[in-house]
Amino acid sequence: MALDPAxxxxxxxxxASILLLDETSVGMSILVQIVTGLGAKQLxxxxxxxxxxxxxxxxxxxxxxVDSLSPSGGGYDFVKxxxxxxxxxxxxxxxxxxxxxxxxxxxxxxxxxxxxIMVKKPIAPVVMLERIIWVxxxxxxxxxxxxxxxxxxxxxxxxxxxxxxxxxxxxAAAQAPASAEEESKEA
Length: 187
Hints:
- 42% of the residues lie in helices and 16% in strands.
- The protein is α/β, with parallel strands linked by helices.
- The strands form two sheets. Strands 2-1-3-4-5 form a five-stranded parallel beta sheet, sandwiched between helices. A two-stranded antiparallel sheet has the order 6-7.
- Strand 1, helix 1 and strand 2 form a beta-alpha-beta unit.
- It starts with 16 loop residues before the first strand and ends with a helix.
- The model has no long low-confidence stretch (mean pLDDT 83).
């Protein structure tokens, strides 16, 4: 999904309203530099989950970049709150979850709380731009259940397993040759 360095495509986040949640001043500074370098002007900087919830209640968001706030995991809690409790359209805003550690359990946690994608620190501006473009172009349908609200957690559409087509058609096709073989044996 890498951007072609020779591409003349231009991306500008000038009109985007972006929520940034990072409890460290260094982390916030890096996020601000990256998104302002991409043209963003409407930034809602939050150091705590409570500030982020207030900002989500007061402003319409186009994107949220949320640190996982390890070790407390408060960033995951905010994303879950955003999906389940925020008003429309903020509950559908794309969410990038950032973290310095990406063991499988944390990646699963980011996916299961409703984040679109996880971005590993240190963050390169081109990687952030690629992820923003990805979530904006490849929107996934939202799912609603008792346990989960958020974008569809499946990334690939590999089709049915084993290159099998529709079930009814496959069952009929599988039974037809078997029936023909049985008839020829009986004759």
